[in-house]
Design brief:
alpha+beta, 3 domains, 15 helices, about 35% helix, about 25% strand
Length: about 425
């Protein structure tokens, strides 16, 4: 049987601790795992296509796109079959996502866990793949022709994993010229423009309402953390730990506001001015009244991660006025990098809890690295909106299988 073919990705299980006999049993284990998703398919052929695709993602193929997967496990006629399987075949990917998320919950749910938010970009050639445009591409570190994905994940004391993904459609894709390409890209007619933070909020809200997922935190990088509307739109019962840019303005203490004195000439001033000036968060780095502390945050692939950390309370600046009182959390790493984060955790929060939150957000970056290094996340060739989402879902399903095997053998992947 195909699932029993002993061509597993050698890097995937190299450090998991599987014995030779355990590797021989992986096919049966994968078969049992995939049986969970059988209700998503009304025809056995579609279920077989999903098994072929997932086996390819877990294989030792150097490029895990449709053609090499089809040729490895089927024949040249299966290339078109797998293309249609991703693009518009009638199987229930929404049900698969629900079953997948339920399994992540069973594995990882933790009352002190975190929903993590991040973007991941995929360089692509051509112009007619859904959402492709010249925009900042994180994987290239520059403006590049690419597709941009928005992802949410989960991390906690019991495990981690990705939860959901949405393809970002740049504003230009809503003009008349690009709309002409929507039918060939399978973009639903009802699709409305959403910013990346808005896409993330929608996914978080769906997970919050529909999944029995325990979490206390939402963590994100500066692309989302600097968006005040994103932070304000999060569920009221959770705390955010949101990276911000060094240029973020805050008040060190809450100012009072008054009109400046009128000098007696000209118009009377009408604009209220603060008693305290706003400052950049970066200025706190040199503030000796807020001491550095050396903290061991976690064990990394290359040893302990021990940054210097500063924490203090600040007042957020919003629309030129003072707003909510927040925590400012600054990390300085051995290589000189400095990261800034804001959190709305209560003032009496133990600093150890902020340290814990700082460690949780890195799990989504680890998920990206594992999925791109081992599971073909970047190797897709589909042009369609639907195909992109289905590919990412199947990569997540494959990733969870690996995570469950790692957990069974009490190991972590080291990409």
């Amino acid at each position: 049987m195909m699932l029993h073919c002993p061509d597993w990705s050698p890097e995937l299980f190299a450090e998991v601790g599987l014995t030779e006999s355990s590797v021989a049993e992986l096919g049966q284990v994968l078969g049992d795992y995939l049986d969970v998703y059988a209700p998503c398919f009304s025809r056995i052929e579609q279920q077989q296509n999903s098994e072929t695709y997932l086996k390819g993602l877990l294989s030792d193929l150097s490029r895990k796109s449709i053609e090499p997967i089809a040729l490895r496990y089927r024949d040249e006629h299966a290339v078109r079959t797998l293309q249609m399987f991703l693009k518009d075949a009638p199987w229930d990917d929404q049900q698969m996502k629900q079953l997948y998320q339920d399994r992540v919950v069973q594995m990882a749910s933790d009352p002190n866990g975190m929903i993590t938010v991040d973007g991941s970009d995929f360089a692509k050639k051509g112009k007619r793949s859904a959402g492709v445009h010249r925009q900042y591409c994180g994987s290239k570190g520059k403006i590049e022709n690419c597709q941009a994905g928005v992802f949410i994940g989960y991390s906690g004391a019991n495990g981690y994993g990705l939860l959901d993904a949405q393809l970002y459609l740049p504003h230009v894709w809503f003009d008349e010229a690009h709309r002409a390409w929507w039918p060939s890209c399978d973009i639903p007619d009802t699709t409305e423009f959403r910013t990346k933070p808005q896409l993330a909020l929608e996914m978080i809200q769906e997970a919050f309402e529909q999944r029995d997922l325990s979490f206390r935190w939402v963590g994100c990088d500066g692309a989302f953390g600097c968006d005040q509307a994103f932070r304000q739109g999060l569920p009221a019962s959770v705390h955010f730990f949101a990276d911000v840019h060094s240029s973020q303005h805050v008040y060190r203490k809450r100012p009072s506001w008054a009109l400046p004195e009128h000098a007696g000439r000209g118009r009377k001033p009408t604009r209220l001015l603060p008693s305290e000036p706003s400052v950049l968060v970066s200025t706190v780095v040199d503030d000796k009244t807020v001491p550095w502390q050396e903290v061991r945050l976690m064990e990394g692939a290359k040893g302990p991660v021990e940054p210097l950390v500063k924490c203090c309370r600040i007042i957020e600046m919003q629309d030129g006025r003072d707003a909510e009182e927040l925590w400012l959390y600054i990390r300085q790493y051995e290589d000189g990098r400095i990261k800034y984060a804001l959190s709305n955790a209560p003032e009496d929060t133990d600093i150890e809890e902020l340290h814990h939150a700082a460690t949780l957000r890195s799990a989504i970056e680890q998920s990206f690295q594992e999925c791109k290094s081992y599971l073909g996340m970047s190797n897709y060739e589909t042009r369609s909106y639907q195909g992109w989402r289905r590919h990412m879902l199947l990569v997540m399903v494959a990733h969870l299988f690996v995570l469950e095997e790692c957990r069974q053998f009490q190991k972590k992947l080291r990409p």
